[in-house]
Amino acid sequence: MYVPSTEPSRDSTSYVHDLVQTAMSTGKGKNKVMHGAPQALIICSSALRVVELVKILRVVTKRPVAKLFSRHIKIDTQKKMLEEGAVDVAVGTPNRVLRLLRDGDLKVNRLKLVAIDCWQDEKMR
User: Fold this and answer.
1) Reported pTM
2) Dihedrals φ, ψ of 43, to 5°?
3) What integer pLDDT is reported at residue 87 of this predicted model?
4) How distant, in Å, are the alpha carbons of 12, 86, 87, 106 from that of 82?
5) CA distance linking residue 116 with residue 42, whole number of Å
6) 41, 59, 60, 63: which has the fewest C-beta neighbours closer than 10 Å?
7) Dihedral angle of Cα 23, 89, 69, 52, to the nearest 10 degrees
8) What span, in angstroms and rounded, lies between the C-alpha atoms of 71 and 93?
9) Is 96 left (phi over 0), alpha (psi -120 to 50) or beta?
10) Crossing angle of helices 75-84 and 94-103, rounded to 10°
11) CA distance 81 to 74
12) For residues 50 and 96, is the Cβ–Cβ distance under 8 A?
C-alpha cells in the first residue's frame, strides 16, 4: 500500500500498525524468542521517520521496538540492545540495518514481515 503524503499523518502510518499486528498474531507459540531476531523489520528512508513509526508501534508489542539508525545512536549501543533484549519489531534506515545484518547482530530467522516504508519528506527523500 502506498499513501503519498508530504506531512506525517495517521493515514501514512496506519498500514504499518496493521501489518505488524497481523504478523505478530500469526503463529504464536511457534516462534521461540531470540535476542536480536525480530518478527517484523521495517526499513525507512530517514531517522525522523523511524522515530515516528516507533512511537506508533509501541502499542503493538509488549517488548521494546528497536530503533536502528545512525543519528545520535552509536552502533555499539544498538548491538548491545539486540544482544541483551528480546525484540519483536525493528525499524531502521537501510545503511544501519545492512551493517547490523553483516555483523551478525540482527538476525532474520524469525522474520515474518519485511516492509519498506516509501514515505517521502518535504525534501522528497
Assistant:
1) 0.78
2) -100, 125
3) 87
4) 28, 7, 7, 7
5) 6
6) 59
7) 80
8) 10
9) alpha
10) 60
11) 11
12) no
Residue with cell 531502521: 92
Given a contact cutoff of 8 angstroms between Cβ atoms, the answer to whether 44 and 53 are in contact is: yes
Confirm if 45 and 70 have CB atoms less than 8 A apart: no
Grid cell 544501519 is found at 96
Amino acid in the structure at residue 53: L
Long-range contacts of 18-26 (CB under 8 A, 24+ apart): 19/113, 19/115, 20/57, 20/60, 20/61, 20/89, 20/113, 21/60, 22/113, 23/112, 23/113, 24/60, 24/61, 24/88, 24/89, 24/112, 26/112
User: From first to last of its 125 residues, what are the pLDDT tens digits of the chain?
Assistant: 444 444 444 455 666 667 777 666 655 555 566 788 998 999 998 898 999 899 888 887 788 899 999 888 899 999 999 999 888 899 999 999 999 999 999 999 989 889 998 877 666 55
